[in-house]
Design goal:
Number of helices: 1
Distance between the termini: 53 Å
Strand order of the largest sheet: 1-2-3-4-5-7-8-10
Strand content: over 45%
Order of helices and strands: HEEEEEEEEEE
Structural class: mainly beta
Largest sheet: 8 strands, antiparallel, barrel
Helix content: under 10%
Shape: elongated
Amino acid sequence: MAMHRPFLAAVALCCLGAGCVPPPGTPSVIEIPVTGDWTGTFESSWGAIPVAATLANQKGTQTISGSFSLAGKRAIGTIYGSLQTSAKGDPGLFYGTLDISYPVATGEICRSTSDFSSTSGSAFEKSIDFVTSGFPRGNCPDPPSNVHMTLRR
């Protein structure tokens, strides 16, 4: 066992300095296929509003992005973050932010963003949930709070 310690230490240092590379043929990223159109409900302090979303995986990464719009064109928004999972078939855990924009009384369009620390979610191939406490960063008056967006294919 003592003979293997220098080798293990060298491997550990290599991984810390340059990152460990998986063996050939081993996928380095497990993607949950979310690319496409989704519909569902945007529940918040504004009530329950139908929502439509278009999402995309960035090929070869865990990054997802997309847009959503609330029925009646009350508001539009964007979704950006990471969808991470440890094994194929497991739910993906979302970490990221949501943006929301809508017209205000002056006719201008406001924009606000959720905090990364209070925005999360989970995803399967046919269902996604995003949750945030609200949109504190930006210039929107009375943005929705206690948001739970549920999307299905």
